[in-house]
Specification:
- The structure is a single chain.
- This protein is α+β, with helices and mostly antiparallel strands.
- It folds into 2 domains: about 55 residues; about 50 residues.
- Strands 5-6-4-7 form a 4-stranded antiparallel sheet.
- It starts with a helix and ends in a 5-residue tail after the last strand.
- The model has no long low-confidence stretch (mean pLDDT about 85).
Length: about 120
């Protein structure tokens, strides 16, 4: 339940006065309530310093990160495009001579605007 005082305060103006780890005094009662999901407890002061608001941070979900920046893609660049080949080399791309394509991070391919040259990666 959100109090009227908290609604009246500009939430961005609440200054963090103190942060407690779940096992510290000042957070133990919240640790009993929220268990291992509790990350920390914070005391925040209103802009005028006359009200203290207690907030809790909870861990509600953990999922693996699939970073597009690290995903490799294959690009088949026309053999006549020497300038693009030089740019790929400068960005750390790897030439696969057997399959005749460049392996480069997806983020690099997108930033260089080369996604139109994308081909399926060979498996095996």
């Amino acid at each position: 339940m959100m109090t009227k005082a908290l609604v009246d305060d500009d939430l961005g103006s609440l200054r963090v006065a103190k942060t407690y780890a779940p096992t510290q005094d000042g957070a133990k009662r919240f640790h009993r309530r929220y268990g291992e999901q509790l990350v920390c407890v914070r005391h925040r002061l209103s802009a005028d310093g006359r009200l203290r608001h207690t907030t809790v941070e909870l861990l509600v979900e953990s999922t693996p990160v699939a970073s597009r920046a690290r995903t490799l893609v294959a690009l088949r660049i026309p053999s006549t495009d020497r300038e693009t080949r030089q740019r790929l080399l400068a960005c750390g791309a790897i030439w696969n001579s057997k399959e005749r394509y460049w392996l480069v991070h997806q983020l690099v391919a997108r930033n260089l605007r080369l996604t139109k040259y994308r081909v399926a990666l060979a498996t095996g």
